[in-house]
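Appendix B, Record 12. Input sequence as logged:
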Amino acid sequence: MDIDQLKRCMKNGLKDDVFPGYAVGITQGDFKHVFVGGYTSHKKQKKITPKTLFDLASLSKPLATTLACLVLIKEGVINYDMTLESLLGCAIPADKKNINLSQLLSHSAGFIGHQDFYKNLEKYPLEQRKNILLNDILHLPLSASPGSKPLYSDIGFILLFFIIEFRAQTNLAEFVEKRIFDPFDIKDICYNPKLNGYSSFAATEDCNWRKKNYVARYMIKTPLSWVVYVVRPVYLPPLILC
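Logged structural output:
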């Protein structure tokens, strides 16, 4: 497919309402070509530009959470065989005592794919939500015995979030920025883009629960220069940790 064909394909997708907007970047050696179209949401209030930030959603698992764990492993702070009790420094229910770091990273700890924790957390003060969420996860029934089979799970990676913050003694956003992004001079990629001075970013989805466009607040976002991403309605369980 040549560039003109690709442009026609994206314009047809826009016309057929497959997505409200798009940003495409092509690079090979010294060749670079960028083209954009449409809007940041179905509301059609803001046009997409080459500087628009896009939600990386679950790509934050390998690009942030997993890398943060690898940094801590390299420094000897944690290791693959450590179990939840030592990783989190708290009492763990009997059915989860043998879950280790390797199982969490490989989605084989036995947790279900996701749970709508936000429906319960929303009613609590902000400062109480993390502890309540951790307690809810630790007392959530497992769907399989730890290590018995792989099952993609957001819940296991939320536990990794708690492990990183407890072991690194700092919040995940700061740790990832200082220990991963800054050393590699990676720009325009961050958690909480509004708090970092960004104003143009695409909506993640139309949220049926809040009845409005949902823009992830505790996910990494990045502009076109970092990753090619097509705007489309997708389901993303909100973490509402911030």
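The chain is about 30% helix and 15% strand.
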